[in-house]
Amino acid sequence: MDKFWDTPIPDDLVFVNAPNCRTRREASTSYPLSSTINEKQPLHNQGGETIIYEHRDPFSLSDIVDRQVTIQRNGLIRKSVRSGKCDLEAEKRRLELIGGRTTIPVPQAVQCSSSGEFEHLVMERLPGKTLESVWGHLSTKERESIADQVADFVTQLHQLKNDTIDAQVFVRQELSSGLNNSTSFSLQRIKNYSGMEVITRFVRDRSQMLDDQQNVFTHGDLDWSNILIADKNVCGIIDLECSGFLPPYCEWIAVKRLSDRHPWFGLLEPRLKSAKWDLMWEVEELISALSNHSQWALVPIDRATNQTEGWAHVPKIVVACVGDGPLVTYELRSKHPLWQEYKANKDKEGDGIIVEQLKETEAPRNSDHGS
């Protein structure tokens, strides 16, 4: 890790926000992410508490905590998230909704509070171990039974309906308010490309076929770390941060996106699928290609690769000529201490689509993420 922070970057590159620095450590110190952060980690912690999960910003020399899950001395769970990262009050309401109107085992929410620069949600601690931790000890039949149980829980969730879309995020894309059906939802997800008629027409023609389907409650992140197992049965579903009311195919889409490279999602995906949603997978493939095209990276060669590879898939999906991809302007460019450009292009930013930072800070796809 020291090598990552202390090795000078190539001579033809410059840190845009720390142009006089040559190493990542110098840049992070000169233009720190923490410049407007007073509380680097939750001050709520007291002796005797156990941290069971923690996410630290990887580009802040790992001294800034964005989220933390703790077992308090009284046995309750406290989830602490930096203000603005998510809406814990909304998560509390959704836990209460699921707990009151289904038989799905979710934690009972106790209270929400805030302190300094963090929001906190206190809830009961459910028994069991994560599916991830016990997966290797389960037989094929036991794994299939767990997938059936989770699918049954999803069926219960889908009985909860809403006329409008009510969710903050879907597959890490932040959602705006005022959406009400499949078409408005899909078009909002490609808003950066709304000026390209061939793309909007492709998305609109497929999405509007499902506009008559009412929005349903969706967990949004059925990762095996969010499923608790006891006696080889599901005893808890946790982490409703990504949940909300969305078009009915969204739970399946969120799982299918990872099903090719993840054994749990591969097992769960066919249990959630409906044949009438096939066209929406075509839309999702397009959205994924566009997301790859505009995916940020800290070094210019990787941003260029993202744009080239992402855009190459677009004409194959829409089966039409789309021309060259639009220029991309990255919102993160002016904020990140480690953002690099070629020296000749240091002052050029372009006039293309503006790509905002994803809801949750993520490491880019390239070698400049320190892992």
UniProtKB/TrEMBL annotation:
Location of the Aminoglycoside phosphotransferase domain: 87-251
GO MF term (any one): kinase activity
CDD domains: APH_ChoK_like
Signal sequence interval, chain numbering: none
Stored InterPro entries: AGP_Transferase, Aminoglycoside_PTrfase, Kinase-like_dom_sf
SUPFAM superfamilies, A to Z: Protein kinase-like (PK-like) (SSF56112)
Pfam family, one: APH
Protein's name according to its UniProt entry: Protein kinase-like domain
Organism: Pochonia chlamydosporia 170
Phylogenetic placement of the source organism: Eukaryota, Fungi, Dikarya, Ascomycota, Pezizomycotina
